[in-house]
Amino acid sequence: MDVIALVGPSGTGKSHRALLVAHKHQADAIIDDGILIKDGKIVGGHSAKKEKSRIMAVRRAIFVLPGHAEEVRAAIDRVKPHRILVLGTSENMVHKITKALHLPAIAQIIHIEDIATKAEMEKARFYRLKQGKHIIPVPTIELKPHFSGYLVDPLQTFFKRSRTKRRRLGEKSIVRPVFSYYGKLSIDDSVIKNIVRAAVSREESVSKVGHIRVRHRYAGEEDQGLDIACEITLSYGGHIPSLIESAREKARSAVEFMTGMVVHELNIVVKALYVNG
Prior knowledge:
With about 280 residues, the chain is of the alpha/beta class.
């Protein structure tokens, strides 16, 4: 089994083109927004598009909710796909997904800009932002048990084999997630700083947490995640690299779990060493 990925900002048409990309690259399974799709059927996971907030949707999509990754890993073991296409808003996100699902390293990353024009991406963004329409590359009849009350419309997808003959490739469905109606949700950087401060302070070796800096990575207007830097004072006596790594991991996990945002970098700087007595 190997893995390829399709990457692009939210609302640029990844799910719309997922079946065509999968067909072209001979991928027989797709991971999109928290679900595993095999042969046009949902065989594992739960869609992020059913969550009631954007934060929960992001957490669902990157498989950090309890039990979600384990369920999809079991489904992968059961259906044994030859090649999996993973969809994500950034390279960092698809790497996080493959790590969470214990998948092989990604062999190829395809960017949406390479397969869609600027006009096509703008059209997709219009339907996402203005009309709240999201696409799932699964037939409507298969999706109904999962999305009762959310379905809008089915879409047919075709792959042209010749001028006179067409073969049906698959069907996609349009849904309106619940969170589309909740408006824009933003988290102030002070909240992120407080999460980091609380997580790092719980480490017994950390005697003081100093300045914390939060920076956002943007692709256009799309927030792609965070870079965080934190200054600390350590108590004398421990193995400093191990202590720093423990604090980094706990802070990163806390931020991603509580906010649903992706942490690209979390750097910790030891500014001083406290010696007791």
